[in-house]
DNA sequence: TATAAACTCTATAGCTACTATAGAGTCAAG
DNA sequence: CTTGACTCTATAGTAGCTATAGAGTTTATA
């Protein structure tokens, strides 16, 4: 199989596949006489695995770690659980941060309506440093 | 004032201040004979404004736009409101995406406990492409 | 057989908003 | 006159790709 076929079947873009090769997540495949990459179906599985992990926003280094673990079948899998737990914590923190941001933006938005001009804009006033109405105020 | 003083008072790092200058968010200040940047207190206000906007995760191009608007005091401020609304939409979408991700990760996590070995790991199984238990499955 | 279309290759720039670093110059105090 | 603190410019790095240029390869068609 050439790279475009592998791309379609794995869901990874051609550029991404070459990037994963460069980063060592997949090994360099054999080549045709004309220097085109040639893949077997094993590579599709590996790339699909990577794709699944990326859809969960796991980093390439985490994924690399998971791929290496598959060659150590007797390792206790606690390390996998810990990785997912850690990743969940990061996601939870990101959600909390964004919710704070959302709240701040909503408060800010309430300071103004569309009928004013720039020099009376409650939003710009709140964003200015000498304002008594700072961004996080109610 | 030299740059470190301005950095302390505005809350922007020295590198960030130079970066904002390069990107045209603040104008190039005068220099001492020894080529050190010299600022007036006006620049602190401008940089504090930028800092406030950045804490709301507004992009530099959005901030640039807001800074330009301040020179057009008679413009209707609807454009500001729209920008904040647009930004809120993006934040809301990001939150929703992350909540989906959180849910997927939690489901995945439930597939395994720490007492297994890698070859029996329910998480790795779920991540593998030939699995009947795909990542988003209940 | 010629040629055009479709595909692939490598290498590089770009994205965002900075941070970190190297190597050199400036300035104030002791 | 030297030490230390500060500043300067320029460059590389961050994450995970995407997009592009310019060149070569393969396949289909005329």
Give an overview in words.
The structure is a homodimer of 138-residue chains. Chain A is mainly α and 138 residues long. In chain A, helix 1 crosses helix 3 (41-55). A two-stranded antiparallel sheet of chain A has the order 1-2. Chain A is built from six helices and two strands; from the N terminus they run ααββαααα. The first copy, chain A, folds into two domains: 3-75, Orthogonal Bundle (Multidrug-efflux Transporter Regulator, Chain: A, Domain 2); 86-127. Chain A is elongated, with a radius of gyration of 24 Å. At the A-B interface, helix 3, helix 5 and helix 6 of A face helix 3, helix 5 and helix 6 of B. The structure holds a DNA duplex (30 and 30 nucleotides). Chains A, B: Residues 91-118 form a coiled coil. Chains A, B: This is Transcriptional regulator CadR. Chains A, B: Keywords: Coiled coil, DNA-binding. Chains A, B: InterPro entries: CadR-PbrR (IPR011791), DNA-bd_dom_put_sf (IPR009061), MerR-type_HTH_dom (IPR000551), MerR_fam (IPR047057).
